[in-house]
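quick one before i forget lol
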Amino acid sequence: NIAEVLVMLFIILVGFETPFIAIHLLWINLITDSLPAIALGMDPKDKGIMSEKPRNPNETIFARGGLRDTVMHGAFITIAVIIAYLSAFWFNGITDYNTIAHIKSLTTDFNGINGQAILAQAQTMSFTALGFAELIHMVCMSSVEHSAFKTLSNKNWMMALAFVAGVGLQFFVVLTPGVQSVFKTSSLSWKEWLITAAAAFVS
């Protein structure tokens, strides 16, 4: 996924702690590549599909603006995830580069929360923002000719189920106590949830 690569590349270049752990990326790929893939395969065909001109068999998948759209959407999701990641530090009054870069090794409390806990919040927010953004991206990109609202209104029940199930499963791994320890996620405040969701939808 281009967004995952871009986020990790940016974070590595600036010297911050990783916004994801391995199980986060595996989970994101699971919820965005399983039911959504089945749902996309069950999409109803556009009514005017037979009136369209045949595609050139020599065209690549990046033809007709495919490369532009891939890079653009990947960039938007990347920015959204980075904003969600950094917001966890900002909410705790941490705005300077050095403190963020060394947050894992700091034992000083910020608003009663230590550095390790703040990093867990940041990773949870970036992990959740990426999951939500890719699920939204799935709906938007299932049709490049119609808006997301029209796309949703014309979709089969499997698409709606895939989206709701993906969002529900993401809430499950963030909010369930026993599962939190496996995924190293942290409980979020309503402000953190709001920023995470807003970043995902804007992307």
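fyi The mean pLDDT is 81.
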